[in-house]
């Protein structure tokens, strides 16, 4: 199956977010990747449920909501109500991951888990059957435009083997450019998140940028 591309709106023009989401929808985005940061789990603050809700009116595409927040449990219902389709939490947050994943599915949403570059894939061993998506961070989360960390390719390979025949998507996020996209797919990634690589050159370029990632 063809690789999916999930543009990260972190690299969009925040003053024109609705328009930007419509532009990447028209340009062929599979998912809309929404990076939520709290200034605590990561050293940056971005957007909350109110913005997700406002953007919901601009596209019917899947909202792939990446929560880089700790604590995360108190906010999951709000993101679900705002229109998230996939809700991904970090393995490194404090609390009870197994319970958090059950909470997400109990709200009728797809449950994802994200691993920072230093986090080993063994954290997945006892929660695989609660997962719809695994997100491998190929940068340290917090900012767009960082360089891809090559050691994560081996992690993608190992996770692909762990997934086996389960219906779990494997997503890679951070520093993904056309230059590394093929290696990510060969290692086993199904979904490529890309911020700068999609949003560079203005909206006239978005479709070509997405095609370049798929090529
Ligand atoms: C990083 C975010 C990523 C990132 C992607 O914390 O989770 O989604 O913004 O942007 P690029 O592709 O520019 O690294
Ligand atoms: Zn992300």
From TrEMBL:
Kindly state one GO CC term assigned in the UniProt record.
Answer: cytoplasm
Enumerate the catalysed reactions. Answer: D-ribulose 5-phosphate = D-xylulose 5-phosphate
Q: Which residues bind a divalent metal cation?
A: 33, 35, 66, 173
Biochemical pathway: Carbohydrate degradation
Q: Which GO terms describe its biological process?
A: pentose catabolic process; pentose-phosphate shunt
Binding site residues for substrate: 8, 66, 142-145, 173-175
**Which terms does the record give in the GO molecular function aspect?**
D-ribulose-phosphate 3-epimerase activity; metal ion binding
- What does it do? Catalyzes the reversible epimerization of D-ribulose 5-phosphate to D-xylulose 5-phosphate.
- UniProt-recorded name of the protein: Ribulose-phosphate 3-epimerase
Q: What is the native source organism of this protein?
A: Haematospirillum jordaniae
User: Gene encoding it?
Assistant: rpe
């Amino acid at each position: 199956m063809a690789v999916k591309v999930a543009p990260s709106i972190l690299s969009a023009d925040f003053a024109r977010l609705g328009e930007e989401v419509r532009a990447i929808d028209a340009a062929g985005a599979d998912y809309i990747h929404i990076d939520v940061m709290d200034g605590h789990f990561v050293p940056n603050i971005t957007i909350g449920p109110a913005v997700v809700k406002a953007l919901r009116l601009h596209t019917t595409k899947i909202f792939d909501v990446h929560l880089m927040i700790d604590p995360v449990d108190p906010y999951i219902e709000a993101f679900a109500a705002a229109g998230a389709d996939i809700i991904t939490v970090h393995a490194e947050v404090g609390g009870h991951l197994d319970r958090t994943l059950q909470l997400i599915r109990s709200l009728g949403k797809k449950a994802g888990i994200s691993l920072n570059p230093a986090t080993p894939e063994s954290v997945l061993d006892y929660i695989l059957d609660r997962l719809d998506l695994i997100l491998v961070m190929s940068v340290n989360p917090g900012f767009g435009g960082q360089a891809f960390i090559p050691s994560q390719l081996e992690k993608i390979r190992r996770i692909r083997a762990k997934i086996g025949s389960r219906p779990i998507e494997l997503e890679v996020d951070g520093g993904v450019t056309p230059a590394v996209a093929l290696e990510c797919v060969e290692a086993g990634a199904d979904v490529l998140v890309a911020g700068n690589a999609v949003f560079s050159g203005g909206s006239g370029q978005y479709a070509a940028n997405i095609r370049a990632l798929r090529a």
